[in-house]
Amino acid sequence: MATLLEVKDLRTEFHTQDGIVHAVNGVSFSVDEGETLGLVGESGCGKSVSVLSVMRLIPTPPGKIPSGQVLFQGRDLLKVDDEEIRSVRGNKIAMVFQDPMTSLNPVLTISTQISEALELHLGMTKEQARKRSVELLKMVGIPEAEARIDDYPHQFSGGMRQRVMIAMALSCSPQLLIADEPTTALDVTIQAQITDIVKRLKHELGMAIIWITHDLGVIAGLADRVNVMYAGYVIESAPNKEIFGNPSHPYTLGLLASIPRLDAARKSKLTPIEGLPPDLIQLPKGCPFYARCKFRTEKCLHENPPLELVAVRHSTACWHWQEVQKAHAAGSAEPIGRVPEVA
Questions:
Q1: Based on the number of CB atoms within 10 Å of its own CB, is 322 exposed (0-12), middle (13-18) or buried (19 or more)?
Q2: 337 exposed, middle or buried (CB, 10 Å; 0-12, 13-18, 19+)?
Q3: Rg (CA), the chain
Q4: In what order do the strands lie in the sheet with 314-316?
Q5: In which band, very low, low, confident or very high, does the pLDDT at 341 lie, cut at 50, 70 and 90?
Q6: Is 139 helix (H, G, I), strand (E, B) or coil?
Q7: Sign, CA torsion 139/171/30/305
Q8: Cis omega before residue 62 (within 30°)?
Q9: Rounded CA gap, 13 and 311, in Å?
Q10: Phi and psi, residue 10, nearest 5°
Q11: Beta strand extents in the chain (DSSP E only)
């Protein structure tokens, strides 16, 4: 498959009264045509800022992208002019945001909001755009779409609003859909429905997807490849089965240990990752996970490990990845986030 999007050494920072917040620190990844890439990690690790940087939606000021490349079909989106990036947003790259309750304009009908992109990017007439809007609502499972097309957002439930957001994102048949935690504000049943809709539409339309979440359970059944982020870095990248079957970074191991499993013993306990992420204003010199890691050594304190291949298509940023793999294979019950005493 051909590469659709390639991000190289992307750095994003925010200038505040307290100092410069280093939100994204040299992130590199790619997305192939038709592929689903999962971005996972706890809140504040740089997932959303990374994709907002790709879309050039970082508010300036206080935000700034000091370096990096975002190559979409060979064009660097960080260097094109405002008119050209607007022709890409919503047309070739579309985004579904996290909160369906606030993503739609409350004073405009659903028809008006979906039709806008169709008229702008595809040059449709109002009648053509309205007809296409009804088709899109049907495609995402909105019942009685013809009757609901002139309703306002407050007349829809949270799950239905998110379906409308997906319909809007797919209106111009984008080549890449970015979904920023689209199921976080919804209950578990609706989450499953939304995920199933996206999976079905991906196969029908052949689009690529970047799915951002902190829920590894969602990623397990959705993504082809997974990037794990921490403190603005990609600290592990591997195919889906490799991430779950052979994690090579202590943080990934901790994430897996902190989620409930149906196949686990009845009395098994979830093991949280203790401690807090580092201050993004004063990033540590060494590994950003050092303070929370049970595998840490003196080298980790002074040298930040690069993201390097440890297997085919599997990269990790850890000096002790072999020990991590052995611990996972042994099924260690010791809490991953336990902070050992260091002399």
A1: exposed
A2: buried
A3: 21
A4: 93-96, 176-180, 208-213, 36-40, 225-230, 233-239, 314-316, 308-311
A5: very low
A6: helix
A7: negative
A8: yes
A9: 32
A10: -75, 130
A11: 3-16, 19-32, 36-40, 63-72, 75-76, 93-96, 176-180, 208-213, 225-230, 233-239, 308-311, 314-316
pLDDT in tens, 156-187: 888 888 888 888 888 888 899 998 888 776 77
| Inter-residue contact 305 to 311 (CB < 8 Å) | no
Residue 43's pLDDT is 86
Structure tokens at 260: 């409930």
Confidence of residue 203 (pLDDT cuts 50, 70, 90): confident
Category of 226 on φ-ψ map: left (φ > 0), alpha (ψ -120 to 50) or beta: beta
262 vs 237: CA distance, rounded Å: 25
CA-CA distance, 286 to 289, in Å (whole number)?
Answer: 9
Indicate the length of the chain as a whole number: 343
Task: Give the tens place of pLDDT for each residue, 27-75.
Answer: 999 999 999 999 999 888 999 999 999 999 999 889 999 999 999 988 9
What span, in angstroms and rounded, lies between the C-alpha atoms of 166 and 156? 14
Q: Nearest 5°: phi and psi at 105?
A: -75, 120
Closest of 179, 215, 219 to residue 51, by C-alpha? 179
